[in-house]
Amino acid sequence: FAGKNINLVSAEDALMLNTKVHRAVSVFQFYVQPWLAELVGSTLFIFTGCMSVIENPLDTGSLQPALAHGLALGIVIALFGEISGGHFNPAVSVSVCLIGGLNVILLLPYITAQLCGGLIGASLAKVISPPNNYFNTSGGAFNTVKDSDQVGPAVVAEMVMTLFLTMSVCMGAVNGKTRTLLAPFCIGLTITADVLAGGLISGACMNPARAFGPAAVAHYWTYHWIYWVGPMAGAVLTGTLIRLMLGDEKIRLLLK
């Protein structure tokens, strides 16, 4: 009987150990791994975006930044989308959270990871860029708006372009009725189209983390608030439209 009791205790200990390991793995997969994916993906995306502006030797206008941002975002979404959802943008996280695609507990950690990724990406761009190029482009920060007359159009442009982007994310990757495997491709193309359309009006940011990183590293804060207010307004509008009218039966609040 003594031997049987020892075996029984050992089995219980093994079960408790397995339970603890399972909980640790669950915490890692639910909290830590998505945070790391958002951090790494935001770093790579924002580094590429900053460099596409800083190193534009042929002065191609919006073409080079549009292609670089669109391609980079499509790639990081394809790489990390199954881990974190592939947001890399506080406005995207807000819109996805509003339609129930992101647990509200993760919203602040996601935004923190994206802002940290912006700082790291912009810092890496500064380290490897020639000083003259870096200074002339404000480190890839958004310097399109020069005076108060441009503020209104810039805010509206950021709101509408972010609406387009967040709508592509929510409808292409979250909404069950319209979800598609081509979502990374569609989202990347949306970024490219937005930059080509609105780059000369506001710089076509659509991403507070993309604005924050180079602004902090280059100490360029002129009209920085535009790139928070516009994108966040677009994200809220997207969430409202999908919740009220465009979402599937699981997401839509009315006329189910």
UniProtKB/TrEMBL annotation:
It is found in: Apical cell membrane; Basolateral cell membrane; Cell membrane, Sarcolemma; Cell projection. InterPro entries: Aquaporin-like (IPR023271), Aquaporin_8 (IPR023277), Aquaporin_transptr (IPR034294), MIP (IPR000425), MIP_CS (IPR022357). The chain crosses the membrane at residues 35-54, 66-84, 91-111, 154-174, 181-205, 225-246. It comes from Pygocentrus nattereri (Red-bellied piranha). Its main location: membrane. One of its GO terms (cellular component) is endosome membrane. The keyword Manganese does not apply. This is Aquaporin-4. Keywords: Cell membrane, Cell projection, Endoplasmic reticulum, Endosome, Glycoprotein, Lipoprotein, Membrane, Mitochondrion, Mitochondrion inner membrane, Oxidation, Palmitate, Phosphoprotein, Repeat, Transmembrane, Transmembrane helix, Transport. GO terms for molecular function: water channel activity. It catalyses: H2O(in) = H2O(out); H2O2(out) = H2O2(in); formamide(out) = formamide(in); methylamine(out) = methylamine(in). One of its GO terms (biological process) is ammonium transmembrane transport. Belongs to the MIP/aquaporin (TC 1.A.8) family. It comes from the Eukaryota. It is a multi-pass membrane protein. Homotetramer. The tetramers can form oligomeric arrays in membranes. The size of the oligomers differs between tissues and is smaller in skeletal muscle than in brain. Interaction between AQP4 oligomeric arrays in close-by cells can contribute to cell-cell adhesion. Part of a complex containing MLC1, TRPV4, HEPACAM and ATP1B1. PANTHER family: AQUAPORIN TRANSPORTER, AQUAPORIN-4.
